[in-house]
Write a structure and sequence with these properties.
- By secondary structure, the chain is an alpha/beta fold.
- The protein has two domains: 7-147 and 206-246, Rossmann fold; 151-201, Single Sheet (N-terminal domain of TfIIb), CATH 2.20.25.
- It has eight helices and eleven strands.
- The strands form two sheets. A seven-stranded mixed beta sheet has the order 3-2-1-4-5-11-10, with helices on both faces.
- The protein is globular and about 50 Å long.
- The relative contact order is 0.16.
Length: 247
């Protein structure tokens, strides 16, 4: 199965509903983990979405640049920046062709499973190579994705969640090799009327697969966490958060 070329359109279509989904996340815990990288000169928030990480980090004195392909999410990020009276560069761009000079950033962060939506593994690899290119020597890359092994062993074909203004019903399927996760999200308003149906695919990686790709891209794994509190990574951990350094 080939993933959609314009995967970011999913987030454009979800629009305000996606904002509610990510607002339900524990952003402060994610920020605490990002800060364990230590003070950084200039950080790229790759697939920044609504800017929820960059806005808080900028408020704490970090120099941030946000990049996303979703025009809708970037508009919401700018609105949030205005509300918080915070300014940092926001760029609309493709993670496979980062619109930055080489060796610009001291760190890159990619949070909340924003990696794996590209049409092929080769394009995921291209993204990692681009991250290496824009990192300074010894620069850091923090990648937060779902743990493939946990998802496979706890897999449920159906699930649901409740948010402020809607319910989300999810139907899921894994291909035979457990490399692709297909999801159908059905959104219902609080009266039970259908708002919309959204299909998408996500490519899944094990730790060893991701480690090999990072090495090929010119980065070494420095640490791996199983959650936002920095707990050690285990096979049953729900998250796989990899800290890598440019060689």
């Amino acid at each position: 199965m080939v993933l959609k070329e314009r995967a970011w359109e999913l987030f454009d279509q979800l629009n305000d509903y996606w904002v509610e989904i990510v607002d339900a996340r524990f952003t402060e815990r994610e920020i605490d983990l990002i800060r364990t990288m230590g003070e950084q000169d200039l950080v790229l928030d790759l697939c920044c979405g609504t800017g929820r990480h960059s806005i808080l980090l900028t408020g704490q004195g970090w120099d941030m640049v946000g990049l996303d392909m979703s025009a809708n999410l970037l508009r919401k990020a700018r609105h949030s920046m205005d509300e918080n009276k915070i300014r940092f560069p926001l760029v609309r761009g493709d993670m496979r062709q980062l619109p930055f000079k080489s060796k610009v950033f001291s760190a890159v962060v990619n949070m909340f499973t924003s990696f794996g939506y590209l049409p092929s593994e080769e394009e995921d690899m291209k993204c990692l190579e681009e991250i290496t290119r824009v990192l300074r020597q010894d620069g850091l890359f923090l990648l937060d994705v779902v743990n493939k092994n946990h998802l496979v062993h706890t897999f449920r074909k159906r699930d649901w969640g409740e948010f402020r203004s809607f319910y989300l019903l999810e139907e899921r399927n894994l291909n035979d090799s457990a490399q692709l996760l297909w999801s159908r999200w059905v959104l219902l308003d609080k009266k039970g009327s259908e708002i919309g149906v959204f299909d998408h695919y996500l490519r899944l990686y094990s730790f060893l697969e991701l480690k090999a790709m990072l090495c090929k891209a010119g980065m070494n794994v420095l640490d791996v966490y199983g959650g936002y509190e920095g707990q050690p990574f285990e096979q049953n951990a729900s998250r796989m958060i990899v800290l890598a350094g440019k060689v």
